[in-house]
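Lab meeting prep.
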Amino acid sequence: MLTLQISELSISYNEAEILNGDFSFLQLFINSSILFFGQNDFALRLPMILLHLLSAMLFYKISQNYVKIQRNRIWLLIVFILLPGVISSAVIVNSAGLILFGLLLFVYIYENYSIKYSYILLLFYMLIESGFVALFMSLIIFSLYKKNIKFLLFNLAMFLSSLFIYGIDTHGSPKGYFLDSIGIYAAIFSPIIFVYLFYVLYRRYLTKDFDLLWFISTVALLFSLLLSFRQRVALEYFAPYVILSLFLVAQTFEHSYRVRLSMFRKKYKWAFIVSLALLLLNSSAVFFNKYLYSVVGEPKKHFSYKIHVAKELAQELKSRGIECVKTDAKMSGRLEFYGVTKCNNYLLEEISANSTKPSNVTISYKNRIVYSANVTNINTN
């Protein structure tokens, strides 16, 4: 299913920025794939799909420490791979997929091997990605709770080093985005699962049932929500941390189910069935998102619009013999990935998809026009 999605997507402006912007480990990872397979959508998204497959394997291995019954671990894995946020991180090139894999690898190494390997892994994380700063922050608090001074000092050093290398993002004027963040989290996990997730974390706080996963998930969730009171938060950096709480959610749900007599388990079965049905509905909306254009009033308000249009637009321009255009910076960077470079020979001007003005270039999905533009030859020499 993920492989089939590749043909449905275009490179986004943010993905183009990752490929062509400042050097990063993720850029190196993606460009290595492009070097091997060529500059195309398959090469662009294959590394993220591979990371996702490895994450799913690690997720199942870790679940063995939290969920006793094998079929329940399979159900938990199904829930994991159906989460809209996880599906998105598996095909979209951003830090979310890398951070999620990194967190699962750290938890697996920490729980199954000598602590010295965790030190090496954390040092590597500090060097390759700014998004792991929340992990260091969580481990500082975890070390305080465990009274592990050596681990505390190491993670404090990693935290400060990460801030020194990558800085702190305090862009924009203070403005509250708390409700927006709650809504995004609910979309990433689906509403019922997110509410139950929040309940489990709070319940474990009341019962003082703390462990590594609780600290990582709770610190990241609370920090992102507190930060959202001041500015818009890039939740792709924080959602992977909260995903780790799924192990605790499954553990709590399984325990609550098993301690009850058969006659009192019916409400838990229905709760799971309804949650899974809604999850399937949400994941279907991600997989078949182009059909939603028929019900969205303004195409640009579609949640996937930023990863659509560019590929089809480049194909349309090439079919007319146009290999380069002058247009806005965001679209120009996207078109360049598909071989339509920058020049002053042709001017590409977008107009509203709902506009009545005539246009000579249109992109449609499912019989709905989602992009309209005019291409003008401005170099007659």
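Slide two material, second protein:
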Amino acid sequence: MEIGISTFVETTPDAETGKVISHAERLREVVEEIVLADQVGLDVFGVGEHHRKDFAASSPAMVLAAAAAQTKKIRLTSAVTVLSSADPVRVFQDFATLDGISNGRAEIMAGRGSFIESFPLFGYDLKDYNELFDENLELLLKIRESEKVTWRGGHRPAINNLGVYPRPVQDPLPVWIGSGGNQESVVRAGLLGLPLVLAIIGGSPLQFAPLVKLYKRAAAKAGHDVSKLPVASHSHGFIGEDNETAADKFFPSTQQVMNVIGRERGWGHYDRSSYDFARSFEGALYVGDPKTVAEKIIHLRKNVGITRFMLHLPLGTMPHDDVMKAIELLGTEVAPLVRKEITRWEAEQGV
């Protein structure tokens, strides 16, 4: 069972003071967070790609590369790379470069992305949303397979027996498929034999169990070894010394972000009752003391089949010291509890 962190490197106004941290300062902070995550024994750190004012990481590979030289074991992944509006050649080159710097710790998490600002920025039409993703994923996997590539699609100039460099340390370079719970994307990942990441950010995490089963059925049908295919989840959360302190610290920025995005997408108002329901045992927020968060992660592993858990932290802008403390607690207290119980449980199950 792998435990890690994901972040979108937000630069939203502080919920209490209204102060906005600069992109430069937040980028430097997140490198410190990755270094600490490595030091406390976490398995993976993911940085998401966005192209808007309230997020600082338009280039996850560059952020991760800044941390790669200062870390030793932690895996470094995008979370996600918006592949529909990205050049697959450049994506591969960036992450192969990261793989070299980190000596084999890079991963790509490919997804459509839930934000659409990259499409007009890079000159793509939203009506081609799905077609672009399918084509770009096909090309990315072809580059991964072979040093020399010949390929033709409908949206990008053809490639005729050209080499793509550098080549990564890992063979193959890991490519995960990120999904918000769409059945089609889950089946595609299974048929391709690619690891799956589910964004579980609302409702009950147990509702995702049928999707994991669907993914595994698709993978088995395509002849892939299901036992070798990890399934990850990405969920919002925060860890504090006790449940109430953690809840009170995480609520202001969470409410602010959920209501800003909610207005953009037509969601209802997010209030404290919505938040408290979401952080209950069956909810999708992993907020509380180390024991509480560990128990929820264990519940997720046993009932949904998740083998990698990524805590999205922070949500919005929080004090850097609070974020660092939460990362420390995740690595030193939560992860050992989860690993011990899951090791015992898997031995019982004969897994």
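Talking points for slide two:
The first strand starts at residue 2 and ends at 7.
The mean pLDDT is 97.
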